Amino acid sequence: MKKLVVLGGGESGVGAAILGQVKGYDVFLSDRNQLKNKYKNLLQEYDISFEEGQHNKERISEADLIVKSPGIPDSVALIKDSIKAGIEVISEIEFGFRYCDAKIIAITGSNGKTTVTKMVYHILKSAGLSVAMAGNVGDSFAMHLATQKADNYVLEISSFQLDGCVTFKPHISILTSITPDHLDRYEDSFELYRASKFRILKNQTSEDFFIYNKDEKSITEYLNQINVPVQMIPFSRTHLQQDLSAFIENNKIQINLPLDKSFSMSVDNLNVKGAHNAQNAMAASAAARLLKIRKQTIRESMESFKGVEHRLEDVRKFENVSYINDSKATNINATFYALDSMTKPTVWIVGGVDKGNAYKDLLNLVNHKVKAIVCLGLDNSKIIEAFGKSVDDVIETDSMEEAVLAAQHFAVTGDAVLLSPACASFDLFENYEDRGNQFKKVVNNL
């Protein structure tokens, strides 16, 4: 019996362990931290051996195959030693793919991937297809394969997950954007991070499709350097001449595809607003048409799609001030889209754990859109330095309640209060969901 070692006992790792058990491996899961009770219970239910609070290096070294959590860098000694010993180390996505015969639509990108993933899933489900959503959102891919079955999988995939992929091959891949993010995992190299994202099309053939954002130079530059046989479908905010393309013209999404798969709809009919969501809708609609989903089903799905929690989420209008939760904006590019979509004078709540942000990229938008800045973080010096001369009112806070009350003080009738931190959340919050939920709670208690 082959031995499978799973490193990391979160959603991804436990899913991989259960799939391994179902497929006949001798499975051992190891996590140097304490496991959550729900994951312990699952492992016990499936009679899977595990340890927590440590890594038993001797037992791990006996593995025939290691599946590692995306949170574990390749640079740690345990991974390096395992690879040096000839043990194959892969991601849960790769492990799941080896036991999957369904059609896969895979989405990656620095920003927009969750929205596009949920859009594609919403369209396919509305069309009555057998479909599951997994990966970085929804269930663990491996867990779903172990316990259920679907004919189509819509997978949101991070660069960390792609790093551990070898044979993974989606039928349709979508790349929404590439902007600097997570560079601490890539030796502070944007080139390494970008190459990681492009692993999504590594194994695609001429029978597969790659939908990508042509408006981003970082994407088009890289495509000019590589040669892959996949059928490419660019999408853009402006008119494109290519036979296979998606673009916006005269406020209409226009998708040009072969064999009567073309499609159009008014941007005004989208339930989610903003230029970035029009781009997301183009990518999702193109994927749906490639899967032969009816045009009317796509239109109805886009009209009913409610968006992603913590991403430009309308929380409440109080005293004629709109409160908007964009806590999922953990980098500059995401906040750029948020500020760009604002149509009212905006009180901006920003800050957290800085990931090497170049705030100057937001300066023009801040000058035109922002009336006051509320800093929410333990170290706000870079934010104050970047915008202190452009915005009259800049205040520092260190709790969500204090931040919201400060924003309420600056906002008047007709304004908007936008939480779009452009930073990670770990200085004051458990994660971006915790940050967004606290914002919503305070706002709803005003």
TrEMBL record:
* Name of one Pfam family that matches: Mur_ligase_C
Entry keyword annotation includes Cell wall biogenesis/degradation = yes
Q: Which Gene3D superfamilies match?
A: Mur ligase, C-terminal domain, Mur-like, catalytic domain, NAD(P)-binding Rossmann-like Domain
Q: Which GO terms describe its molecular function?
A: ATP binding; UDP-N-acetylmuramoylalanine-D-glutamate ligase activity
Q: In which pathway does it act?
A: Cell wall biogenesis; peptidoglycan biosynthesis
**Annotated positions binding ATP:** G109, S110, N111, G112, K113, T114, T115
User: Coiled coil located at which positions?
Assistant: 25-52
All copies of the Mur ligase C-terminal domain together span: 310-423
Q: Which SUPFAM superfamilies match?
A: MurCD N-terminal domain, MurD-like peptide ligases, catalytic domain, MurD-like peptide ligases, peptide-binding domain
The family note in this entry says: Belongs to the MurCDEF family.
Name the UniProt record assigns to this protein: UDP-N-acetylmuramoylalanine--D-glutamate ligase
